[in-house]
Specification:
The chain is built from 6 helices and 6 strands; from the N terminus they run E-H-E-H-H-E-E-H-E-H-E-H. The protein is of the alpha/beta class. Strands 1, 2, 3, 4, 5 and 6 form a 6-stranded mixed sheet that branches. Helix 1 runs parallel beside helix 6.
């Protein structure tokens, strides 16, 4: 299977980034083809709601989003990894989601996994973040949520190495595709 991980953390080696790598490590060991995109490394401007894309299905902005959108369309499994900022999705993830407008109807029949990290130790700290990701999936034909990895209670870079989510991310990566 083609697995695409979209990591929205602006912090390289941060907790979301590490859990994303753990998930992909498990997926690779099971023979899956994987690709990771770090949104912090990409040049993506926010949507300006010009709707120039409605007929052409191409954004008027010429940046890295066209490449990311094609990767989303081509993947079988998509992992969305985001830290929780003020109890919501971080800006990088939200910009990417909004910029899917030109071709979102082509992101069809995908299995999705979420990786959420937050300083707050309660899983409920991720409720709004998960609601935002679920809202995105509601717009994608045939999208299926398959699992959530909660890295809650991780604030400092590296906290996740001693957190149960570290092993859970690896284990979940090894089992992708089994939920069907």
């Amino acid at each position: 299977m083609k697995v695409l991980a979209i990591c929205a953390s602006p912090r390289k080696g941060g907790n979301s980034d590490v859990l994303c790598d753990q998930f992909l490590k498990g997926a690779i060991e099971e023979g899956n083809e994987v690709k990771k995109i770090n949104l912090a490394d990409m040049n993506i401007s926010p949507c300006v709601a010009c709707y120039g894309c409605t007929k052409s299905h191409q954004c008027v902005k010429k940046d890295d989003m066209a490449q990311i959108q094609q990767e989303l369309i081509d993947a079988d499994i998509i992992v969305l990894a985001t830290p929780v900022y003020f109890y919501s999705i971080d800006a990088q993830m939200k910009i990417m989601i909004d910029r899917c407008l030109p071709r979102y109807r082509e992101i069809i029949n995908k299995d999705f996994y979420y990786i959420i990290t937050a300083a707050d130790p309660e899983h409920s700290a991720a409720d709004e973040t998960i609601a935002g990701l679920r809202g995105y999936l509601r717009c994608l034909p045939g999208a299926k949520e398959q699992g959530i990895i909660y890295g809650t209670g991780t604030w400092d870079k590296g906290d996740v190495y001693l957190h149960p989510s570290f092993e859970k991310a690896y284990a979940m990566g090894k089992t992708i595709g089994e939920a069907e």
